[in-house]
Amino acid sequence: MAMRRAAHPTAAGRMRASGMRKLNAALLLNIIRDKGLVSRAELARLSGLTKPTVSSQVADLIKRGIVVEDGEGAPDARGGKPPMMLRFDAQSGSIIAAEIASSSVRVWLADLDGRPFDSVASPIKPEFGAAHVLDVLCSTVYDVLARTGRRRSLLSVAIAAPGRVDANTGTVLEAGNVFHWRNVEVRKRVEDHFGVAAIVDNDVNFAALGEMHSGLAVGVDNFILIRHGTGVGAGLVLGGRLYQGTHWAAGEIGHMIVDRESAAEDAADRGMLELAIGSDRVRERVLSAHSGQPSTTLALSSADLAGELAELVRRNDVAAALVLDEVASQVSIAVADMAATIDPELIVLAGELFGLVADRIRELVGRVIPWPMRIELSALGADAALMGAMGSARGLAHDLLCDLGRDQVQLSALR
After folding, report:
1. 214 Cβ contact list (under 8 Å, min separation 6)
2. How far from 137 is each of 111, 120, 134, CA to CA, in Å?
3. Which helix (H) or strand (E) holds 109?
4. What 3-state DSSP class applies to 131?
5. 3-state class percentages of the chain: helix first, strand second, coil last, to nearest 5
Protein backbone atom coordinates (compact mmCIF):
# COMPACT_ATOMS: atom_id res chain seq x y z
CA MET A 1 0.00 0.00 0.00
CA ALA A 2 1.35 3.40 -0.96
CA MET A 3 2.31 5.68 1.87
CA ARG A 4 0.06 8.74 2.16
CA ARG A 5 1.92 12.00 2.04
CA ALA A 6 1.74 14.11 5.13
CA ALA A 7 -0.39 17.18 4.49
CA HIS A 8 1.51 20.44 4.44
CA PRO A 9 -0.03 23.42 6.24
CA THR A 10 -1.61 25.85 3.81
CA ALA A 11 -0.61 29.51 3.60
CA ALA A 12 -3.99 30.44 5.03
CA GLY A 13 -3.42 28.08 7.95
CA ARG A 14 -0.02 29.58 8.64
CA MET A 15 -1.52 33.07 8.51
CA ARG A 16 -4.25 32.08 10.95
CA ALA A 17 -1.69 30.60 13.34
CA SER A 18 0.46 33.73 13.09
CA GLY A 19 -2.55 35.96 13.71
CA MET A 20 -3.53 33.87 16.73
CA ARG A 21 -0.04 34.20 18.20
CA LYS A 22 -0.23 37.97 17.83
CA LEU A 23 -3.65 38.13 19.46
CA ASN A 24 -2.44 35.91 22.30
CA ALA A 25 0.56 38.21 22.80
CA ALA A 26 -1.76 41.23 22.92
CA LEU A 27 -4.01 39.50 25.47
CA LEU A 28 -1.11 38.56 27.74
CA LEU A 29 0.51 41.98 27.47
CA ASN A 30 -2.79 43.63 28.43
CA ILE A 31 -3.06 41.44 31.52
CA ILE A 32 0.55 42.08 32.55
CA ARG A 33 0.08 45.85 32.15
CA ASP A 34 -3.19 45.85 34.08
CA LYS A 35 -2.00 43.64 36.93
CA GLY A 36 1.37 45.30 37.49
CA LEU A 37 2.96 42.11 38.79
CA VAL A 38 1.72 38.68 37.74
CA SER A 39 3.05 35.11 37.63
CA ARG A 40 2.95 32.81 34.63
CA ALA A 41 0.44 30.55 36.39
CA GLU A 42 -1.87 33.48 37.03
CA LEU A 43 -1.48 34.59 33.41
CA ALA A 44 -2.65 31.16 32.25
CA ARG A 45 -5.64 31.30 34.60
CA LEU A 46 -6.68 34.83 33.66
CA SER A 47 -6.15 34.42 29.92
CA GLY A 48 -7.55 30.92 29.50
CA LEU A 49 -4.46 29.98 27.49
CA THR A 50 -2.48 26.80 28.12
CA LYS A 51 0.62 26.98 30.28
CA PRO A 52 2.93 26.02 27.37
CA THR A 53 1.42 28.80 25.25
CA VAL A 54 1.88 31.31 28.06
CA SER A 55 5.47 30.21 28.66
CA SER A 56 6.33 30.52 24.96
CA GLN A 57 4.72 33.94 24.61
CA VAL A 58 6.27 35.27 27.81
CA ALA A 59 9.72 34.06 26.73
CA ASP A 60 9.33 36.05 23.51
CA LEU A 61 8.17 39.18 25.35
CA ILE A 62 11.14 38.94 27.73
CA LYS A 63 13.56 38.40 24.83
CA ARG A 64 12.24 41.57 23.18
CA GLY A 65 12.67 43.57 26.39
CA ILE A 66 8.97 44.38 26.74
CA VAL A 67 8.44 42.28 29.87
CA VAL A 68 10.93 41.69 32.70
CA GLU A 69 11.08 39.29 35.61
CA ASP A 70 10.81 41.26 38.84
CA GLY A 71 11.37 39.14 41.93
CA GLU A 72 9.58 36.20 43.48
CA GLY A 73 5.98 36.09 44.55
CA ALA A 74 4.41 34.30 47.47
CA PRO A 75 4.24 30.49 47.20
CA ASP A 76 0.81 28.94 46.79
CA ALA A 77 -1.06 27.18 49.62
CA ARG A 78 0.72 23.89 48.89
CA GLY A 79 4.13 25.45 49.36
CA GLY A 80 6.73 24.75 46.73
CA LYS A 81 8.95 27.11 44.82
CA PRO A 82 7.78 30.74 44.80
CA PRO A 83 6.74 31.92 41.32
CA MET A 84 8.80 34.45 39.40
CA MET A 85 6.75 37.62 38.90
CA LEU A 86 6.47 39.42 35.57
CA ARG A 87 6.21 43.16 34.96
CA PHE A 88 5.67 45.29 31.86
CA ASP A 89 8.72 47.49 31.24
CA ALA A 90 7.21 50.86 30.34
CA GLN A 91 10.71 52.29 29.95
CA SER A 92 11.42 49.99 27.00
CA GLY A 93 9.88 52.48 24.59
CA SER A 94 8.72 56.05 24.14
CA ILE A 95 5.66 57.73 22.65
CA ILE A 96 4.95 61.26 21.48
CA ALA A 97 1.72 63.25 21.69
CA ALA A 98 1.57 66.57 19.86
CA GLU A 99 -1.01 69.28 19.26
CA ILE A 100 -1.01 71.86 16.48
CA ALA A 101 -2.70 74.92 17.98
CA SER A 102 -3.33 78.33 16.41
CA SER A 103 -0.05 79.89 17.58
CA SER A 104 2.14 77.00 18.75
CA VAL A 105 2.84 73.28 18.62
CA ARG A 106 2.92 71.44 21.94
CA VAL A 107 4.79 68.16 22.32
CA TRP A 108 4.72 65.63 25.15
CA LEU A 109 7.21 62.76 25.41
CA ALA A 110 6.26 59.84 27.65
CA ASP A 111 7.02 56.21 28.41
CA LEU A 112 4.73 53.39 27.31
CA ASP A 113 2.46 53.92 30.32
CA GLY A 114 2.03 57.58 29.43
CA ARG A 115 4.26 58.86 32.24
CA PRO A 116 5.93 62.04 30.95
CA PHE A 117 9.64 62.44 30.36
CA ASP A 118 9.51 65.96 28.95
CA SER A 119 7.31 68.54 27.25
CA VAL A 120 7.94 71.58 25.09
CA ALA A 121 6.02 74.20 23.11
CA SER A 122 7.29 76.02 20.03
CA PRO A 123 5.70 79.08 18.37
CA ILE A 124 4.38 78.84 14.84
CA LYS A 125 3.17 81.32 12.22
CA PRO A 126 0.26 79.63 10.41
CA GLU A 127 0.29 82.33 7.75
CA PHE A 128 3.65 80.91 6.56
CA GLY A 129 1.85 77.76 5.42
CA ALA A 130 1.61 74.07 6.22
CA ALA A 131 5.25 73.31 5.39
CA HIS A 132 6.42 75.78 8.03
CA VAL A 133 4.09 74.35 10.69
CA LEU A 134 5.16 70.78 9.99
CA ASP A 135 8.83 71.79 9.96
CA VAL A 136 8.40 73.30 13.44
CA LEU A 137 6.49 70.23 14.61
CA CYS A 138 9.16 67.79 13.42
CA SER A 139 12.05 69.87 14.75
CA THR A 140 10.34 70.20 18.14
CA VAL A 141 9.79 66.44 18.36
CA TYR A 142 13.38 65.82 17.30
CA ASP A 143 14.72 68.27 19.89
CA VAL A 144 12.80 66.72 22.78
CA LEU A 145 13.91 63.23 21.74
CA ALA A 146 17.54 64.32 21.41
CA ARG A 147 17.79 66.06 24.74
CA THR A 148 16.26 63.10 26.58
CA GLY A 149 18.21 60.44 24.67
CA ARG A 150 14.97 58.67 23.68
CA ARG A 151 15.24 58.86 19.87
CA ARG A 152 15.96 55.15 19.33
CA SER A 153 13.15 54.07 21.66
CA LEU A 154 10.38 56.01 19.90
CA LEU A 155 7.52 53.70 18.88
CA SER A 156 4.58 55.90 17.94
CA VAL A 157 3.35 59.47 17.49
CA ALA A 158 -0.18 60.87 17.79
CA ILE A 159 -0.95 64.35 16.50
CA ALA A 160 -4.00 66.49 17.27
CA ALA A 161 -4.49 68.62 14.17
CA PRO A 162 -6.89 71.43 13.24
CA GLY A 163 -9.79 71.08 10.86
CA ARG A 164 -11.47 68.16 9.16
CA VAL A 165 -9.10 65.19 9.27
CA ASP A 166 -9.22 61.87 7.43
CA ALA A 167 -7.99 59.70 10.30
CA ASN A 168 -7.43 56.72 7.98
CA THR A 169 -4.73 58.52 6.01
CA GLY A 170 -3.75 61.18 8.54
CA THR A 171 -4.58 63.95 6.07
CA VAL A 172 -6.01 67.34 7.03
CA LEU A 173 -8.69 67.65 4.35
CA GLU A 174 -9.40 71.25 5.19
CA ALA A 175 -8.66 73.65 8.01
CA GLY A 176 -10.02 77.14 7.61
CA ASN A 177 -9.74 79.80 10.28
CA VAL A 178 -6.06 80.75 10.72
CA PHE A 179 -4.57 77.80 8.77
CA HIS A 180 -6.25 77.66 5.34
CA TRP A 181 -5.00 74.11 4.70
CA ARG A 182 -6.25 71.73 2.03
CA ASN A 183 -5.19 68.06 1.79
CA VAL A 184 -2.11 68.34 3.99
CA GLU A 185 -0.55 64.90 4.54
CA VAL A 186 0.51 65.29 8.17
CA ARG A 187 0.92 61.59 8.95
CA LYS A 188 3.05 60.91 5.89
CA ARG A 189 5.36 63.80 6.73
CA VAL A 190 5.85 62.62 10.33
CA GLU A 191 6.26 58.93 9.44
CA ASP A 192 8.75 59.75 6.69
CA HIS A 193 10.72 61.98 9.07
CA PHE A 194 10.89 59.65 12.08
CA GLY A 195 10.34 56.20 10.59
CA VAL A 196 7.66 55.26 13.13
CA ALA A 197 3.88 54.81 12.94
CA ALA A 198 1.70 57.87 13.53
CA ILE A 199 -1.97 58.65 14.12
CA VAL A 200 -3.47 62.01 13.16
CA ASP A 201 -6.97 63.16 14.04
CA ASN A 202 -8.92 66.32 14.71
CA ASP A 203 -7.93 68.08 17.93
CA VAL A 204 -11.48 68.13 19.31
CA ASN A 205 -11.85 64.39 18.70
CA PHE A 206 -8.69 63.80 20.69
CA ALA A 207 -10.01 66.11 23.43
CA ALA A 208 -13.14 63.95 23.62
CA LEU A 209 -10.96 60.83 23.96
CA GLY A 210 -9.01 62.60 26.71
CA GLU A 211 -12.23 63.23 28.63
CA MET A 212 -13.37 59.64 28.02
CA HIS A 213 -10.18 58.11 29.41
CA SER A 214 -9.13 60.63 32.07
CA GLY A 215 -11.82 63.26 32.61
CA LEU A 216 -15.50 63.73 33.35
CA ALA A 217 -16.62 61.18 30.75
CA VAL A 218 -14.91 58.11 32.25
CA GLY A 219 -17.51 55.34 32.09
CA VAL A 220 -19.91 57.44 29.96
CA ASP A 221 -20.90 55.75 26.69
CA ASN A 222 -22.66 58.68 25.01
CA PHE A 223 -21.37 62.22 25.37
CA ILE A 224 -20.41 65.33 23.42
CA LEU A 225 -17.44 67.61 24.05
CA ILE A 226 -17.73 71.17 22.74
CA ARG A 227 -14.46 73.05 22.47
CA HIS A 228 -14.29 76.83 22.13
CA GLY A 229 -11.27 78.89 21.14
CA THR A 230 -10.45 80.65 17.92
CA GLY A 231 -12.30 77.71 16.42
CA VAL A 232 -15.49 76.01 17.59
CA GLY A 233 -16.00 72.26 17.30
CA ALA A 234 -17.41 69.16 18.95
CA GLY A 235 -16.24 65.60 19.54
CA LEU A 236 -18.94 62.91 19.60
CA VAL A 237 -18.60 59.63 21.48
CA LEU A 238 -21.51 57.28 20.82
CA GLY A 239 -21.74 53.80 22.23
CA GLY A 240 -18.31 54.23 23.81
CA ARG A 241 -16.63 54.94 20.46
CA LEU A 242 -15.57 58.10 18.69
CA TYR A 243 -17.98 58.95 15.87
CA GLN A 244 -16.29 60.74 12.95
CA GLY A 245 -18.95 60.78 10.23
CA THR A 246 -19.04 59.92 6.54
CA HIS A 247 -16.91 62.90 5.50
CA TRP A 248 -14.87 63.10 8.72
CA ALA A 249 -17.05 66.09 9.57
CA ALA A 250 -19.01 64.89 12.61
CA GLY A 251 -18.83 67.64 15.22
CA GLU A 252 -18.07 70.48 12.79
CA ILE A 253 -20.60 72.61 14.64
CA GLY A 254 -18.87 75.83 13.57
CA HIS A 255 -20.99 75.41 10.42
CA MET A 256 -24.29 75.25 12.31
CA ILE A 257 -26.88 77.94 11.58
CA VAL A 258 -28.33 79.50 14.70
CA ASP A 259 -30.38 82.41 13.33
CA ARG A 260 -32.37 83.42 10.23
CA GLU A 261 -29.92 86.12 9.18
CA SER A 262 -26.98 83.73 8.85
CA ALA A 263 -29.20 81.24 7.00
CA ALA A 264 -29.61 83.79 4.22
CA GLU A 265 -25.86 84.27 3.77
CA ASP A 266 -23.44 82.30 1.62
CA ALA A 267 -21.39 79.59 3.33
CA ALA A 268 -18.07 80.68 4.78
CA ASP A 269 -14.90 78.65 5.29
CA ARG A 270 -15.09 79.19 9.04
CA GLY A 271 -18.80 78.54 9.32
CA MET A 272 -21.49 80.89 10.60
CA LEU A 273 -21.39 79.89 14.25
CA GLU A 274 -17.61 80.13 14.44
CA LEU A 275 -17.67 83.51 12.70
CA ALA A 276 -20.06 84.70 15.39
CA ILE A 277 -18.48 83.31 18.57
CA GLY A 278 -14.86 82.35 17.85
CA SER A 279 -12.66 83.92 20.53
CA ASP A 280 -11.08 86.34 18.05
CA ARG A 281 -14.53 87.54 17.02
CA VAL A 282 -15.63 87.93 20.64
CA ARG A 283 -12.58 90.09 21.26
CA GLU A 284 -13.27 92.19 18.15
CA ARG A 285 -16.91 92.76 19.13
CA VAL A 286 -16.06 93.95 22.63
CA LEU A 287 -13.31 96.25 21.33
CA SER A 288 -15.67 97.58 18.66
CA ALA A 289 -18.33 98.35 21.26
CA HIS A 290 -15.75 100.43 23.16
CA SER A 291 -14.30 102.18 20.12
CA GLY A 292 -16.77 105.05 20.38
CA GLN A 293 -15.83 105.75 23.99
CA PRO A 294 -12.70 107.97 23.93
CA SER A 295 -12.37 107.92 27.70
CA THR A 296 -12.01 104.14 27.71
CA THR A 297 -8.66 102.50 27.11
CA LEU A 298 -9.20 98.85 26.36
CA ALA A 299 -6.68 96.34 25.01
CA LEU A 300 -8.06 92.83 25.39
CA SER A 301 -5.25 90.28 25.35
CA SER A 302 -5.85 87.15 23.30
CA ALA A 303 -3.65 85.30 25.82
CA ASP A 304 -6.09 85.89 28.70
CA LEU A 305 -9.31 86.93 27.00
CA ALA A 306 -11.53 85.13 29.52
CA GLY A 307 -9.78 86.71 32.51
CA GLU A 308 -10.04 90.21 31.11
CA LEU A 309 -13.69 89.75 30.12
CA ALA A 310 -14.42 88.48 33.63
CA GLU A 311 -12.89 91.68 35.02
CA LEU A 312 -15.00 93.82 32.67
CA VAL A 313 -18.16 92.01 33.78
CA ARG A 314 -17.17 92.52 37.41
CA ARG A 315 -16.96 96.24 36.66
CA ASN A 316 -20.47 96.11 35.15
CA ASP A 317 -19.25 96.67 31.60
CA VAL A 318 -22.40 96.54 29.48
CA ALA A 319 -20.70 95.73 26.18
CA ALA A 320 -18.82 92.74 27.60
CA ALA A 321 -21.96 91.42 29.31
CA LEU A 322 -24.00 91.69 26.10
CA VAL A 323 -21.37 89.92 23.99
CA LEU A 324 -21.04 87.09 26.52
CA ASP A 325 -24.81 86.70 26.69
CA GLU A 326 -24.90 86.41 22.90
CA VAL A 327 -22.19 83.73 23.05
CA ALA A 328 -24.21 81.84 25.66
CA SER A 329 -27.38 82.10 23.57
CA GLN A 330 -25.79 80.81 20.38
CA VAL A 331 -23.95 77.97 22.10
CA SER A 332 -27.18 77.05 23.87
CA ILE A 333 -28.99 76.69 20.55
CA ALA A 334 -26.25 74.36 19.30
CA VAL A 335 -26.28 72.36 22.56
CA ALA A 336 -30.06 72.03 22.56
CA ASP A 337 -30.12 70.91 18.92
CA MET A 338 -27.48 68.23 19.59
CA ALA A 339 -29.22 67.16 22.80
CA ALA A 340 -32.49 66.68 20.92
CA THR A 341 -30.76 64.83 18.06
CA ILE A 342 -28.32 62.55 19.93
CA ASP A 343 -29.67 62.47 23.51
CA PRO A 344 -26.24 62.22 25.19
CA GLU A 345 -25.76 61.51 28.87
CA LEU A 346 -23.25 64.35 29.20
CA ILE A 347 -22.13 67.49 27.38
CA VAL A 348 -18.64 68.72 28.30
CA LEU A 349 -17.71 72.37 27.69
CA ALA A 350 -14.00 72.92 27.05
CA GLY A 351 -12.63 76.43 26.71
CA GLU A 352 -11.88 79.31 29.06
CA LEU A 353 -14.84 81.47 27.97
CA PHE A 354 -17.25 78.71 28.97
CA GLY A 355 -16.34 79.35 32.60
CA LEU A 356 -18.10 82.72 32.25
CA VAL A 357 -21.28 81.48 30.55
CA ALA A 358 -21.80 77.85 31.64
CA ASP A 359 -24.60 78.68 34.08
CA ARG A 360 -26.41 80.71 31.45
CA ILE A 361 -26.07 77.84 28.94
CA ARG A 362 -27.53 75.38 31.47
CA GLU A 363 -30.42 77.77 32.11
CA LEU A 364 -31.23 78.30 28.43
CA VAL A 365 -30.92 74.62 27.49
CA GLY A 366 -33.04 73.65 30.50
CA ARG A 367 -35.89 75.78 29.16
CA VAL A 368 -36.21 73.90 25.88
CA ILE A 369 -35.03 70.36 26.66
CA PRO A 370 -37.65 68.66 28.87
CA TRP A 371 -35.40 65.82 30.07
CA PRO A 372 -32.35 65.98 32.36
CA MET A 373 -29.25 67.20 30.52
CA ARG A 374 -25.92 67.17 32.35
CA ILE A 375 -23.69 70.03 31.17
CA GLU A 376 -20.26 70.31 32.82
CA LEU A 377 -17.03 72.26 32.42
CA SER A 378 -14.05 70.16 31.31
CA ALA A 379 -11.80 68.92 34.09
CA LEU A 380 -8.80 68.65 31.75
CA GLY A 381 -8.72 72.19 30.39
CA ALA A 382 -6.18 72.99 27.70
CA ASP A 383 -4.50 69.57 28.04
CA ALA A 384 -7.52 67.50 26.92
CA ALA A 385 -6.42 67.02 23.30
CA LEU A 386 -2.86 66.11 24.30
CA MET A 387 -4.15 63.60 26.85
CA GLY A 388 -6.37 62.01 24.22
CA ALA A 389 -3.47 61.91 21.77
CA MET A 390 -1.23 60.35 24.42
CA GLY A 391 -3.77 57.59 25.03
CA SER A 392 -3.98 56.87 21.31
CA ALA A 393 -0.18 56.86 20.91
CA ARG A 394 -0.03 54.40 23.80
CA GLY A 395 -2.63 52.14 22.19
CA LEU A 396 -0.81 52.30 18.86
CA ALA A 397 2.52 51.40 20.50
CA HIS A 398 0.89 48.48 22.33
CA ASP A 399 -0.46 47.01 19.10
CA LEU A 400 2.84 47.52 17.32
CA LEU A 401 4.61 45.67 20.12
CA CYS A 402 2.24 42.79 19.46
CA ASP A 403 2.92 43.09 15.71
CA LEU A 404 -0.68 43.82 14.76
CA GLY A 405 -1.36 45.41 11.37
CA ARG A 406 -2.24 49.06 10.87
CA ASP A 407 -5.95 48.37 10.40
CA GLN A 408 -6.07 46.70 13.81
CA VAL A 409 -3.79 49.41 15.22
CA GLN A 410 -6.10 52.19 14.10
CA LEU A 411 -9.17 50.53 15.57
CA SER A 412 -7.67 49.88 18.99
CA ALA A 413 -5.82 53.18 19.26
CA LEU A 414 -8.95 55.24 18.57
CA ARG A 415 -11.16 53.36 21.02
Report:
1. 380, 387, 391
2. 20, 11, 5
3. strand 104-111
4. helix
5. 50, 20, 30
Provide DSSP, 327-391.
HHHHHHHHHHHHHHHH--SEEEEESTTHHHHHHHHHHHHHHH--S--EEEE-SSGGGHHHHHHHH
Given a contact cutoff of 8 angstroms between Cβ atoms, the answer to whether 362 and 348 are in contact is no
Question: Helices 354-368 and 305-314 sit at what angle, rounded to 10 degrees?
Answer: 70
Contacts 24+ apart (CB under 8 A), 45-50: 49/24
Q: What is the pTM of this model?
A: 0.87
**Please, what sign has the CA dihedral across residues 15, 17, 21, 24?**
positive
Residue 250 is inside which H or E element, if any?
A: none
145: Cβ contacts below 8 Å, ≥ 6 apart: 94, 96, 109, 151, 154
Within 13 Å, how many C-alpha atoms sit on residue 304's CB side?
A: 6
Q: What is the mean pLDDT of each run of 10 residues along the chain (415 residues)?
A: 47 63 88 92 93 92 91 74 91 96 96 93 96 98 94 95 97 91 97 96 98 96 96 96 96 88 68 90 88 59 83 91 94 96 97 95 96 95 95 92 56 35
